[in-house]
Specification:
Helix content: 25-40%
Keywords: Hydrolase, Signal
Signal peptide: 1-19
Protein name: Peptidase S9 prolyl oligopeptidase catalytic domain-containing protein
CATH superfamily: Alpha/Beta hydrolase fold, catalytic domain
Number of strands: 8
Domain Peptidase S9 prolyl oligopeptidase catalytic: 119-176
CATH class: Alpha Beta
Order of helices and strands: HEEEHEHEHEHHEHEHH
Oligomer: single chain
CATH topology: Rossmann fold
Structural class: alpha/beta
Number of helices: 9
Shape: globular
Radius of gyration: 18 Å
Number of domains: 1
Distance between the termini: 20 Å
Strand order of the largest sheet: 1-2-4-3-5-6-7-8
Strand content: 15-25%
CATH architecture: 3-Layer(aba) Sandwich
Amino acid sequence: MIIRATIIFIALLSSAAQANEQGENISLTMTESGLLWDKQIQLQATLYKPDGKGPFPLVIFNHGSTGPGQIPASLTINPWQFGRYLKQQNIALLVPMRRGRGGSQGSYKESYNCSVNSVEAGINYASQSLDATMHYVQQQTWIDQDQIVIAGHSRGGLLSVLYAAKHPQWFKGVLNFSGGWMAEQCQITSPTASNLGLFTKAAHNNPLPHLFLYAHNDPYYSDATITSYVQSFKQAGGQVDFQFYSLGSSADGHALFHEYGEFWINDVKRYLQQLGLI
């Protein structure tokens, strides 16, 4: 089964020469509120839209953080392999870049401090970019508003879980790839602001089905910590299917989404089928 999935996924990724299939660059309008005035800024987003009028199901994909200086804030995240795959399934993919990331205007203010105030401020700041994204989405008649899945990798994975918990009426499900706002050391210094605390909070009174996808050898969270995220989410009432992949002893488990699609593609397809998007 893994071999077959690998062949299918490689076939989707092999045609790098087809650069014209790397999505459409669009602009989303966001209003920033200041002490004395409001101003409009533009957020960059990449859209993969199937041919035809629709309405089409939609996956919104939220990117991760820059890390502490590891990834340039100017880098646009564009998972074009995933976009091409979803288009073949007649599903649209929208990849918004939050403020200060990629070609989006505004400042990047998602800090790396474990304090409760810093974590909460960073999540609220990131969520405002998602508010602008949803405003765009809800104006598009070609999108099936009852068939929207929110997804993300790393910081974007946990952001997706938290945002959907706040607005469950907007989404059909949640896809979390290696999600976490901070590395696991925050669990010691700020338990309530840790990934564990945030996942637990998001599970309360949450009716949405979630798919959590993680891999062993993740440099940011140990295997035991990842398992604790899932167990706590379930114990707090959350609905979650959990897949834990072994990529190989030398593999970076946190790179699961971007580099190891052959491991998760069938699980994602099965999840989207269960939700009725495929």
